[in-house]
């Protein structure tokens, strides 16, 4: 099996401006995410986890800190880059739109997702997850944990996530995480979220 590789972006680093600046994107993708990939490959080399998918590693490798942190970092960021693709629908569509309506509506989701992102202490992520029955839930996880991991308080398949580590926003927003979270909704590609929801 080939080792994990840094995924290529389908857009240029400046494509998400003014919400996310090109310098942040370049450092975040080519430095931070690359480090997670490199460290993950080292952590699983020669172990029973070698050759598994990243999803399987997130589910099985959380007893090893290097695998948990770097495997989570690789999975989380790979999803993050996908749902930020420029273009596509700026509003929920299809099955995920219906799931959000069943949840209580888009505005309720937006408020709860924003609150989860803004109140996550320290570093971490906020998520929209598809549950086994097709419903959706909002939650947050610390550090590079995600809802695929058995250690997570919320169990589901992530279809949307926001990175609230400072490296994701500090160059532009400094300590104003709420401003970053509010702007994030302007660069979500809901067509991709719908695709992930239908695959989950």
Helix content class: 40-55%
Helical region count? Answer: 8
Major sheet, described briefly? Answer: 3 strands, antiparallel
Radius of gyration: 16 Å
Summarize the structure.
The chain has 200 residues and is mostly helical.
Structure, explained:
This protein is mainly alpha-helical and 200 residues long. 48% of the residues lie in helices and 10% in strands. It has 8 helices and 3 strands. It has helices spanning 22-44, 54-60, 65-83, 94-103, 106-119, 170-173, 177-184, 190-199; strands at residues 124-130, 136-142, 157-163. The two termini are 24 Å apart. The model has no long low-confidence stretch (mean pLDDT 96).
Key terms:
superoxide dismutase activity; 200 residues; 3 strands; oxidoreductase; mainly alpha; globular; 8 helices
Secondary-structure map:
Layout: H1 22-44, H2 54-60, H3 65-83, H4 94-103, H5 106-119, E1 124-130, E2 136-142, E3 157-163, H6 170-173, H7 177-184, H8 190-199
Antiparallel strand pairs: 1-2, 1-3
Helix pairs in contact: 1-3, 2-3, 4-8
Function: Destroys radicals which are normally produced within the cells and which are toxic to biological systems.
Family: Belongs to the iron/manganese superoxide dismutase family.
EC number: 1.15.1.1
């Amino acid at each position: 099996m080939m080792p994990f590789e840094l995924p290529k972006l389908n857009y240029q680093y400046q494509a998400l401006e003014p919400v996310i600046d090109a310098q942040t994107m370049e450092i975040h993708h080519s430095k931070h995410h690359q480090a997670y990939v490199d460290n993950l490959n080292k952590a699983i080399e020669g172990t029973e986890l070698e050759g598994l998918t990243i999803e399987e590693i997130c589910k099985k490798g959380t007893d090893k800190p290097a695998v948990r942190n770097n495997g989570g970092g690789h999975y989380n960021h790979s999803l993050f880059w996908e749902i930020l693709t420029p273009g596509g629908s700026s509003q929920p569509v299809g099955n995920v739109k219906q799931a959000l309506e069943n949840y209580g509506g888009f505005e309720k989701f937006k408020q709860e997702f924003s609150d989860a992102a803004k109140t996550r202490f320290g570093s971490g992520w906020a998520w929209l997850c598809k549950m086994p029955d097709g419903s959706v839930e909002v939650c947050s996880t610390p550090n590079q944990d995600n809802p695929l991991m058995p250690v997570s308080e919320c169990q589901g398949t992530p279809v949307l996530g926001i990175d609230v580590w400072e490296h994701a926003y500090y160059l532009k927003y400094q300590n104003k995480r709420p401003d970053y979270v509010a702007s994030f909704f302007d660069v979500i590609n809901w067509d991709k979220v719908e695709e992930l929801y239908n695959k989950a």
